Amino acid sequence: MTRGAQTANVPPNGPESGDRAELPQTSPPLATEPLDWKRLFTAFALTPLLAGFYPAIFLAEPSLMPIGLVLSYASTVLFGVPLVAYFDRRGVREWYMYITGGTACSLPTVLLYALAPLPDHVQPFGAMTVLGVLLWGGSSGIVFWMIGIAGDSAVSLRSLFDPVSSKK
Fold this sequence. Notes:
Layout: H1 3-6, H2 37-58, H3 65-90, H4 95-105, H5 107-115, H6 127-149, H7 157-161
């Protein structure tokens, strides 16, 4: 048999399609627009700043703020920047992936919290404190996504802190 004879009885859209015309199933298109580096720089500058303030605000532990700032910026440089670069190459723009990434970036802080000797006034390492640190990482991930990824308008400090300003 020749190759033309084998496919003569097969409909053009496949053997089970019959007369209905179906589109081939493809994966959703990747986000091909490059990320705005000004927005990313703003997000990388502000988001770890918030994460460093979380212990001072929510735990009433201002002595942890400098340590939190150092840890959050170090985690951003070591884990956050490569993760965002990976997401950009893959075209990932979904908010829940950035929450997961922020949570993953907080894991080194959890390990340090588990291994480092703690002063007496700091809460002991436990399930609730670990959950709190992981939730702070996830909330930092969504804040990063809102500042650096979501939307298509330019981000400036004025638009972040005065969103109702009159445009002249």
